[in-house]
Amino acid sequence: MTQAFCDAALRLPHVVAIDGPSASGKGTLARRLAADFGCTYVDSGAMYRTLAWWTLQSGLRCEKPMRPSEEDAIVRLMRRWDARLRVIDGAAWFTVAGYFPREEIRSDRVERAVPVVAQITRIRVWMVARQRDCAQFGPLVMEGRDIGTEVFPLAQVKFFLEADAAVREQRLAQRGNAGSAGSGRDAMDATRRKGALYPALDAIRIDNTHQTPDETYEIMRSHMGRLRVAGAWPA
Ligand code: DC
User: Fold this and answer.
1) Ligand 1 centroid to 3 CA: how many Å?
2) Percent of the chain whose pLDDT exceeds 90
């Protein structure tokens, strides 16, 4: 990591952390913000999805309830998988043995398996370390559930996006993944022991229930503009 990408005094990487439940608009807004502010985009959920995909590919069971021996098997798999961080089209992704499973990680079976994988504390500890490794790619916009609280608690700017559950269900239905990714998964995300979804105390909370993506984006952009004026973000 070069010093140009770090906070002058503390040598912190420049990070915009965007957290929130599913269908709160994180993905679209994070990608747009990253492109406009010259940052690498990181979808931390995709990292958990890649491990869930690899778990299923390896023939391991990945459903609740999970026996300790099954959990141990996934952790062992993670410790020896050949996963590398690569920047592809301005975003950091895991490749596994050189392969980028772009489509596969969005399948229904991965959708069902990923919250199970993401609940395992030893997996979260490893993932958080890899997410921090992304600082090698320069300034970041990273989206997830625990970015502002666990991964980068000193991020220069933190957004927490929210929307009413009914509106989020509608958005998921429009994307064709109602039910599987909705309230059940959010409940697991909100109640796990480590990395639970909650807003950081210093997060800018935006409820976008009644906003268009453009309106939410303008609010986020104006906060970024203020940071630039204050010298907390590279001009
Ligand atoms: O954002 P997503 O739908 O791609 O996330 C997939 C799963 O990973 C979801 O169950 C939440 C979980 N996740 C997490 O636990 N921590 C993160 N930082 C990002 C995602």
Assistant:
1) 30
2) 80
State the pairing for strand pair 83-88/15-19.
Answer: unpaired
CA 115 – ligand 1 centroid, Å: 7
Residues 33 and 83 both lie in one domain: no
Minimum-distance ligand 1 atom for the alpha carbon of 188: 10
Distance 117 CA to ligand 1 centre (A): 10
Q: What are 27-62's pLDDT values in tens digits?
A: 999 999 999 999 999 999 999 999 999 999 999 999
Identify whether residues 158 and 48 lie together within a single domain. Answer: no
Mutation probe of ligand 1 site: the residue of 19, 47, 48 with most atoms within 8 A of C-beta: 48
Question: Which CATH number is 18's domain given?
Answer: 3.40.50.300
The predicted pLDDT at position 124 comes to 97
Whether residue 125 sits in one domain with residue 164 = no
Note down the domain range covering 132.
43-137
Instruction: Examine the domain organization and report whether 163 and 233 are in the same domain.
Output: yes
Q: Are residues 110 and 194 in the same domain?
A: no
Ligand 1 is surrounded, with C-beta below 6 A, by: 22, 44-46, 48-49, 114-115, 118, 144-146, 185, 189, 195
Question: What are the DSSP calls for 30-99, one per residue?
Answer: HHHHHHHTT-EEEEHHHHHHHHHHHHHHTT----SS--HHHHHHHHHHHHH--EEEEEETTEEEEEETTB
